[in-house]
User: Fold these one by one.
Assistant:
Number 1:
Amino acid sequence: MRAVRYTRTGGPEVLEVAEVPFPQPGEGEVAIDVSHAGVHFADVMFRRGQFPLPLPAVPGLEVAGTVAGLGPGVTGLRVGQPVVALPMGFGGNAERVIAGVTTTVPLEGELAGLDPLLAAGAACNAATAVGTLRGAARIAAGDRILVLGASGGLGLLLGRLARAYGAALVVGAASTPQRAARAAGAGYDRGLVYGELAGLAPGLTDGQGFDVIVDAVGGEPREQVRGLLAVLGRHVVIGNAADRDITLDANQVWYDSFTLAGYNLGGVLARRPDLLRAQLEEGLRLVADGTLPLDVEEIGWDGVAEAHRRLEGRAASGKYVLRVR
Ligand SMILES: NC(=O)c1ccc[n+]([C@@H]2O[C@H](COP(=O)([O-])OP(=O)(O)OC[C@H]3O[C@@H](n4cnc5c(N)ncnc54)[C@H](OP(=O)(O)O)[C@@H]3O)[C@@H](O)[C@H]2O)c1
């Protein structure tokens, strides 16, 4: 079968389209014939070797397609059924992939009308947005929210979802005025560049600070938001796109009366699969009913390396989805 593959870590040039053997489902697993597959920032991080992965590797951790086969012990699904899935061991940028039954959701009932292009583009980030705002940030109506990396695929969803959950103020921050304007044009109340935050946050929040800061960026912006939280505010760390962390003393959390929280989709799945499944289903329902519009660009097999280039070049604004068949 056809798959995007890399045999060594490195830049986007290590990606190739290759013939690879069909994977077989094991116990509790589902084989899926993929129609659409998301290209995700996590694919970039693993491809460049930030985290170890056995090689050769096939990227892709979100797909839509139809069930091709069931491993031992799988019930409640049937061959030919349309599904959306998170193959958490990657492999989704391929004609067939294996996913766990917990993260395979039938496109039926409230999800019956969901376009597989949107389903594949939403799966990972919509589940993450729900888990971040509801689970980690414990968002409440009237909260004032700041999202770093607001013009990225996840960032755009976070702003829209915060609004749907009743936030009173939703501010998006980005690296350039163009990206900040993109966030403002896509539902944020204000779009700011990171360097403006310290100066403008007090005026935007009546001098109180933000109740929630969502931070998938790390690096300098993570430094720049120190001191911008309201009393008992929550700084939620969900990524490290800049590939640079900061040092924070635990005593500072006490002195400043704030909460440091986190959300990691794979980590939640490993320890609370039921919770991850509920977050995935809620995120997909919100996309299906139009609460969470998604900005998707469909690409072909020859477009995957360029999508990686744009993701790591901070040039993406929305979601790339590979049309597999
Ligand atoms: N915790 C989880 O379970 C989970 C799940 C999904 C995604 N994530 C994380 O969320 C982040 C966003 O994912 P995404 O799908 O929205 O990707 P994306 O569309 O490429 O967005 C990446 C964002 O990070 C910002 N960024 C800052 N420094 C960067 C750098 N050095 N290189 C590239 N981008 C940089 C970019 O905005 P500016 O250029 O404006 O700063 C951009 O908005 C990633 O870090 C990803 O790992 C975490």
Note: The pocket of NAP is lined by residues 40-42, 124-125, 128, 149, 151-155, 174-175, 179, 216-217, 238-239, 241-242, 263-265, 311-312, 314, 316 (CB under 6 Å).
Number 2:
Amino acid sequence: MLPSLLIGSIQLETCLLLAPMAGYTDFAFRSGIRDLGGMGLAYTEMLNPRSVMQGGGLKREALLATGPSDRPLGWQIYGSDPVLMAECACFLWETRQPDLIDINMGCPQRKITGRGDGAALLRNPGLAHRIATAVAAAVPVPVTVKLRIGWDTGQRTAPGLAAELASCGISAITVHGRTGKQKYTGHSDTEAIREVVEAAQGIPVIGNGDIMSPQDAKTMLETTGCAGVMIGRGALGNPWIFQQTEDSLKHGKIVPPVSRRRRLDFLLAHLDRTGALYGIDNAAKLFRKWLPHYAAALGISKPRMVELMQYRETEKLRLELKRTAV
Ligand SMILES: Cc1cc2nc3c(=O)[nH]c(=O)nc-3n(C[C@H](O)[C@H](O)[C@H](O)COP(=O)(O)O)c2cc1C
């Protein structure tokens, strides 16, 4: 059973969300997943308000790129200045017509938390509240917040913060079941996510962390009572996970394995879209980070993958991938 998910005024087709992932969840990847089905909502990677509003630059344009079929799309911004965050949300609303805006309060990277942004806001609930209030008041679309369960095990502030956020115009909260200090070590804590669900006073909470299969999504929904599930790393190399989870949980279908042919077709189409987005001359280099995610299921050995990662010409990489993987 898949619950239906309403975020503010947006009724999602499924309650399965693609996590924001810097360097990965660009237009090229999102469009591929949308073609496969099952995903109810995608997010951009976290965006810096100043870079968004500055204008110009190929990299910025690629980060902001989207298209008519790339909907619904949430735009994630990060920062700790309520005025700047509200200005950026407004700018995005005026220039990109986002379906919703998401505020990052979970990024654990030191260069982000060192400036008081991302997960550092979990230690500063007053400021987190001011940011959420300012952004929610600035735009006519739903605003969501993405949290971790707290800064560290001694400061599991997410339930209290969720209760506060519910009163300041936030339409949904996503919670990753790790602390900021944990980064990606250990396991995502479903019990801690359940505490946030209970504290959030009726606004939908989306559970996130370690969903690698339809069964993991089912367990997340059942053990936490969350309203939706967000999938990150489990979608890298397995973009079928959304469709598989929908088929399995909604229709009780047994998930058949994805053939190598389909995997290769997806990979090549992804490479082509990367070329269209960043320029054909840049695609092979940018695609290096994707190869480890696709290689094993395509039967590509580690040494061969390392070789493939050296190719600089996109057309050459394309030919070699075809030759290696079939
Ligand atoms: C490479 C990478 C980049 C990420 N970038 C972002 C980001 O831009 N914004 C954000 O809120 N979370 C980001 N995250 C965290 C994910 O959204 C997600 O919360 C986390 O990976 C746990 O979910 P998972 O176990 O399904 O991957 C990133 C994670 C990874 C692995």
Note: The first helix runs from residue 27 to 36.
Number 3:
Amino acid sequence: MQVRKLLSKCLLRSLLFPLTMTAPAMASIFADAPPVVSADMAQQILEEGNKRFVQGTLSIYDVGTSRRAQLSLGQYPYAVVVTCSDSRVPPELIFDQALGYIFVIRVAGNVLDAVALGSVEYAVEHLNTKLVVVMGHEKCGAVKATVDGGHVPPNLGAIAAKIQPAVDIAKAANSADIYEAATDANIVNMVNIVNADHVISQIAGVKVIGAKYHFESGEVRFIK
Ligand SMILES: [Zn+2]
């Protein structure tokens, strides 16, 4: 009975497309010639998926043989998500998205070096993905380590060096919560880096937006 109820819910969502624009509805469209999904539409899909995550009403996805065979022919992700490697921040779950919908770049502190930025460029230029989300999160260990300072090995130091400008901003502002202020500034800094990218800035219709994930509520708040 429970399964039937859930299947009906998915069918209803499909019938309501594009009013609700849920991932299951998009799946049927992607089966043939996929449309380019606009940045605003992609953001709406992610917002709706996050609402389902917050409410605990995740969709049922086909991640079986047929979907995998479909995706073996190509990928058409409608959003790029740059986020932290933190095990508590998996974008596919947080946005309730299945295989093939979001192009994910994960690195501690959600920082962008040339390699990570090249991955964003690839999705935007070659996969026609119009929305780029840089998503930080509360209580980020990479940000905290950078704020606290001290000696770190070179590779961790490379991450801290990327976060440091945000720490400087938060300290200059005398923020009450230096860790969260630095996290917020780091998200904005990374959004600015993507916006300034010489490849991405040349492509029409691309929107780059910041977001922050909140652990207890499960909510993603878009920043700008
Ligand atoms: Zn983190």
Note: The domain at 2-222 is CATH 3.40.1050.10 (Beta-carbonic Anhydrase; Chain A).
Number 4:
Amino acid sequence: MSQEDNKPAPQSAAAPANATPAPPKKPRGRLQLDMSVNVAGIALRNPILAASGTFGYGVEFEDIVSLDKIGGFVVKGLSKEPMAGNPPPRLFETAAGMLNAIGLQNIGARAFIEEKLPRLRKINGAVVIANVYGYCPEDYEETIRILNDGEGIAAYELNVSCPNVRYGGITFGQDPYLLSEVVAGAKAASKRPLIVKLSPNVTSIGKMARAAEDAGADAVSLVNTFLAMAIDPITRRPRISNITAGLSGPAIKPIALRMVYEASQSVKIPVIGIGGISTAEDVVEFLLAGATAVEVGTANFWDPRACERLVDELERWCLEQHIESVASLRGGLLLG
Ligand SMILES: Cc1cc2nc3c(=O)[nH]c(=O)nc-3n(C[C@H](O)[C@H](O)[C@H](O)COP(=O)(O)O)c2cc1C
């Protein structure tokens, strides 16, 4: 962890003669900033993770981002068998955001273990989280069993919130009973910590977070994308072949923040905040709302170095604010 000189306090105007004497100033030594956080037993060097679907399998970013400098990354959603995803167009830029309906195109869990993991293992200190998708509870369990054999995976993130597939995904994330079933099965199959990624397309996020916790989740992450759409007024056709798509990016940040706050109030397990994060201040807002760590998604599309940049920016922000431990920011929101 790098160190930096603590900034001197600004000089105040001369105090009036009758003023109460100021308390003695603490000696300003070198501030030792601790950026580390712990999510369900996973030690992270800092709270910045790359979000699933926006960072490939990690290996694609190897030459651009120091994968051992960011907190970690969540790989593209993996299924038991490879998936082709939806036909194009699958992406569309909106005001301060992006629509996507990729449809979970991926190489499958076995190919991930054989083709990508060996390379990731060579990057000392990279924290790899595998995002898991299934059509039914048995699919999730089988995919996890396949991944259990892969060395070098820190945890699983269960995607029960994808809005862009016809079966599975969001179906589980919108019904607390189905969510409990899929989480309990996945937990029983898993030999690693289980993070459950929640959908924002629900009425009560607190209720869904609690259902995940009660069924055995070690942590929850939220949010996935918001169900949305766009139409080309000239052709009168949907902008995305799937008709509806998931909205992400800065446009969703205030809603995601509210949901992270509500989820954090509802569960005891760690919460990972996701949604429109692109600055150090965004990260701090999510931590203050109750998140232990954050994931950065759409920002990787306009700045592939976004995660590494945010680590530097967060460090600078903490030093400027005389924060000694990033973990101490969690839930620090002041009310009243
Ligand atoms: C192109 C794209 C693909 C995505 N694929 C996945 C996925 O495979 N699994 C998953 O859980 N979330 C997926 N997501 C959702 C993101 O991980 C994240 O939850 C969401 O985009 C909100 O964060 P952001 O506003 O920082 O992008 C995807 C998002 C985008 C934009």
Note: The longest helix spans residues 306-320.
